[in-house]
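Course assignment 3, question 2. Fill in each field.
Student: A.L.
Task: Predict the tertiary structure for the chain below.
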Amino acid sequence: MSKSDLYKPQQFRTPLSRARGMGSSHHGVSHFITERVSGIALVPLSLWGVFAALKVAGVDHHTAAAWLGQPLNAVLLSLLLIAALVHLQGAVQVVIEDYIYNFTTKSVLVIGNLFVCVLAGAVGVFSILKVALTGAL
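Answer field:
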């Protein structure tokens, strides 16, 4: 190590990252946009969800199944579920990445978070479709 090397600023980027010219901002922008778009989508869908829950709260099973059998209600409920799970997955991932410092634990939790949200979405949409298409509750 020469004396001139001591006065050079330290580089924290990998050689591949310097060659590509991509910094950390290329990863975070997609998370930022996903959170904002899902949050904006949740505003009208949540208002519809509250209205729908109040409307269906006091009815029997057959009436609720008939209500969910209407295509608009089934589609809106599926969209509400998907938007909520996308928003939840992104928010929980940010919390995990910010507060868990062990790489292995962080990786396991992020992957587990993704699997739980995808599984919940699949089961939820399947259930909505089953009730909507068969009329059984």
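Instructor remarks: The two ends are 74 Å apart (CA to CA). Helices lie at 15-20, 25-56, 61-68, 71-99, 103-134.
Grade: pending
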